[in-house]
């Protein structure tokens, strides 16, 4: 763990492992999500019609979705990062919705199209725990065998089955652990997504989340503070006074609680959720990510806390 931060940061990990930064080019390949169909009542309560797609990938005007081709998204993403940051190394990141939600042959076609040209260091695929199986894992392993780092990002969100139910996630903790094991057994990297601050989540539920993350064998974690996004089912609950998003002070306490209980070797890729301003309902007074890092690290260091110091 670097001296400067009380957690295992992603930038230090990249620096130590490669000696340079790898930039993620996020693409939306037009996938949907098995949790957004009518039988599942329209998806996770916090999810909007863009399913984590960036605005340059897919935009929604309230009645229709505009989708940019993968080639265009890659071209725009790489050009922007090269020009703005002098980026030289890239990871292709299938980011929006559930990026294994198709038959294996279709997935191969889509991944191959994105990986065209010898310009990638890594492939990152984000998906749901109930949307991956042996055949899909074998396909992803074939890219590792071709020399790419391959990481699967699995959404856990919470280690409490009750909270998962309230989120309308459509899977439970055991489903997540089974899929995590498939990914790890194949030698692929695993990153876990978590959301902190959902209504009903107390220390007991957060401790469950830490425990599940530790048991999953994940190398990476993303922490997100609950955001209430315009037009979601959670927004409707918020308007009725049934849901709130944690404010800065509450979220600092939750992030600190979780970080202290996860393994010290897990790399922290993200600490807050960043919803575009026009869509964010709450919390409205949250700082940007650099300021948040200062606030959280200042708090943890002032108390002598660090990642994993309460990990059993
Ligand atoms: S799994 Fe992801 S894309 Fe599907 S409804 Fe939930 S948040 Fe949205």
Characterise this structure:
The protein has 312 residues and is α/β, with parallel strands linked by helices. 38% of the residues lie in helices and 17% in strands. The protein has helices at 10-17, 70-85, 104-115, 134-145, 161-167, 173-185, 203-216, 233-239, 248-261, 289-303; strands at 23-27, 58-60, 65-67, 90-94, 122-127, 149-157, 189-196, 220-225, 228-229, 267-270, 280-282. It has a seven-stranded parallel sheet. A two-stranded antiparallel ribbon has the order 2-3. Strands 9-11 form a two-stranded antiparallel sheet. β2 and β3 form a beta hairpin. The longest helix has 16 residues, at 70-85. The radius of gyration is 19 Å and the shape is globular. The model has no long low-confidence stretch (mean pLDDT 93). Iron/sulfur cluster is lined by residues 33, 35-36, 43-44, 47, 51, 97-98, 128, 155.
Shape: globular
Structural class per helix/strand content?
Answer: alpha/beta
Low-confidence stretches: none
**Main sheet properties:** 7 strands, parallel
Rg of Cα set:
19 Å
The distinct ligands, each listed once, are: iron/sulfur cluster
Residue share in helices? 25-40%
Which fold name is given in CATH as the topology?
A: TIM Barrel
Q: What strand order characterises the main sheet? A: 1-4-5-6-7-8-10
Q: How many helices in DSSP terms?
A: 10
- Number of E-state strands: 11
Tell me the name of the CATH homologous superfamily: Aldolase class I
Question: What is the second-level CATH architecture?
Answer: Alpha-Beta Barrel
């Amino acid at each position: 763990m670097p001296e400067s931060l009380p957690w295992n940061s992603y930038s230090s990990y990249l620096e130590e492992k490669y000696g340079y930064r790898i930039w993620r080019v996020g693409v939306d390949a037009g996938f949907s999500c098995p949790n957004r169909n009518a039988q599942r009542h329209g998806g996770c309560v916090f999810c909007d019609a863009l399913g984590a797609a960036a605005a340059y990938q897919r935009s929604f005007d309230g009645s229709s979705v505009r989708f940019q081709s993968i080639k265009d998204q890659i071209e725009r993403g790489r050009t922007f990062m090269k020009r703005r940051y002098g980026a030289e190394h890239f990871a292709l990141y299938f980011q929006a919705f559930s990026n294994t939600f198709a038959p294996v042959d279709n997935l191969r076609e889509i991944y191959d199209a994105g990986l065209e040209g010898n310009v990638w260091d890594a492939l990152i695929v984000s998906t749901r725990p109930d949307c991956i199986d042996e055949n899909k894992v074998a396909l992803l392993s074939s890219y590792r065998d071709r020399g790419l780092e391959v990481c699967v990002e699995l959404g856990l969100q919470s280690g409490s089955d009750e909270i998962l139910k309230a989120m309308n996630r459509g899977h439970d903790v055991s489903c997540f652990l089974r899929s995590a094991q498939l990914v790890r057994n194949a030698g692929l990297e695993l990153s876990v997504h978590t959301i902190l601050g959902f209504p009903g989540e107390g220390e007991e539920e957060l401790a469950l989340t830490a425990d599940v993350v530790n048991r999953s064998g994940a190398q990476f974690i993303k922490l997100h503070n609950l955001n209430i996004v315009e037009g979601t089912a959670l927004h409707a609950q918020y308007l009725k006074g049934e849901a709130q998003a944690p404010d800065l002070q509450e979220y600092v306490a939750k992030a600190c609680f979780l970080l202290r209980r996860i393994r010290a070797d897990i790399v922290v890729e993200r600490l807050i959720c960043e919803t575009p301003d026009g869509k964010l309902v709450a919390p409205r007074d949250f700082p940007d990510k650099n300021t948040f890092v200062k606030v959280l690290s200042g708090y943890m260091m002032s108390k002598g806390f660090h990642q994993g110091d309460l990990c059993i």
